[in-house]
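Limitations
The structure tokens in this dataset are predictions for the assembled complex, not deposited experimental models. Users should treat interface geometry with appropriate caution, especially where small molecules or nucleic acid strands are included. An illustrative entry is reproduced here so readers can see what is and is not provided.
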Amino acid sequence: MNVQFLFPKPPPSIEEVKDADGDIDMLLKSQRQKFETKVVTPGEVIAKDTQYMRGHGTYLDENETHLASVAGVVERVNKLITVRPLNTRYTGNIGDLVIGRITEVSNKRWKVDINSRQDAVLLLSAIHLPGVQRRKTEADELQMRKFYSEGDLLVAEIQGSFQDGSSSLHTRSLKYGKLRNGSFLIVPPTLVQRTKSHFHRLDCGVDVTLGLNGYVWVSKPSSRVLNEMSEDDSEYIYSNENEPIGKDAREAIARVCNCINALSKSYMSITDTTISYAYEASLNFSVKEILKLESIELIANQTKQRLKA
Amino acid sequence: MADRRRIQGPEVSVAPIILKSPNKIQLLDENLCRRNGRNLEDIRSIYLKTGLISQANGSAFIELSKTKIVCGVYGPRQTKIPAFSGKGNLNCEIKFAPFSCPKRRPPYRDSQEKELSQLIYEALTPSIRLDLLPKSTIDIYITILENDGTASCLAAAITCASVAVADAGIEMLDLVPACSASYINGQIFMDSDLIEEKRESGSLVLSYMPSLKEITHILQSGEVELNLTSQAIEQCTDSCSKIYSIMIDSLLLPIQNMK
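Predicted assembly:
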């Protein structure tokens, strides 16, 4: 009787694919291909298997079939299936940097529009109060409009989120606070990605703050270096007065704004690199011309090519 | 100088357009073909596009030959009146443009608009996952630019609003296509236009979720026999499945362009 020993072989159908976190993909190759850049519409079946976990943008019917509940791209992380829609409202995550607009001043808190399902709250205790570090007093409560009044723009960090989709903000650092000396614009929230820093100073001498909620602030750099302890600076951060902005600075701000608009219209991600590439590509046009469709296309193409290079 | 107290007539006079009485128009020819060349069970060809209103969170435009409707969806956003509700609110408003009908529509909201708004609300609510949106409101604003048959307008408005809601990225169970039918002389005319509608003895509007195979809303008016109704429901569900594929295409187009 001939006995033969074979070398152990890994099953051929499973291919080890590691993602960014070093997790190994456990799916069969044929199964994985089902998910690769698949676009679905509400009600469409994504997977019939019960082994998957239900993520955002999906739901289960009575047969335990996974169906899409939004129109978008199917994304899968191991067993978790989610559908990411093209345009949707922003949902706050702790630590996100957002730009918002005050909609209401109420008891000990402000309501802030951050492009979310619900307005965010900014508690009086969550802001940087003028003067040396201290507790809030009744006097602060009475003059809340001195800090932020309706319509003011501010940059803040998300401190926590609630079950109903609303979140609470804080501006306890001097990095955050009221926005002045610039221009505001809105882009789809999916285009702004999480990075180390969301405050950028471009080479053209313009500051850009990218809120993760899709709100963007383009401004002239502040000439003042802020000091946490100084009484004067604390008054200054809540001032409503714009600094004088020269003609060149205004033009640069307008150009950057139009470039960001061009990027968002061509659905390209918005980072400091793409903005500066788009800015350089736009120098052949006047500020006004950047808004034309032909120039948007040209700027987007040039930016894409430089990104690839 | 002319007398300013009198109303001066225009310099050029134009003969008034005399409309043919709808009762004299022949609806079917000898081959059972309708006036615009389609069969009894055919619906008009549809043009559907999303994302026309830039400031809305989601929007859609639908055109069925003469019928033209735009829809904008705003939200989900904070409910203004802070009455607590564990579910989201859906707010539908339909508006006929003053120039949309053969007769001028006054710009204020009339009872027909209120009724249609309520019907659209009823047709869409089962499809939208309002349980995921506590304390929030979704506003749907529909404007009818041209009306060619009220029943088909209602159906097109439901289809259009459903696509706009999906375009806004709001979670829903399924898209809701809707289709209308008219009963004329014991025959079913699918997706009837204004002239056919004037001659109808009754009508049916059906909203249907094709992938779940569930009817969200059904509206029947007028006089009809039972077997004709069940036949009409069957034909409407068939047409809804056809409309569904158009809705999917219109939703996927911007995503595929992105890639």
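Some entries come with short summary sentences. For this one: Chain A has a mean pLDDT of 86.
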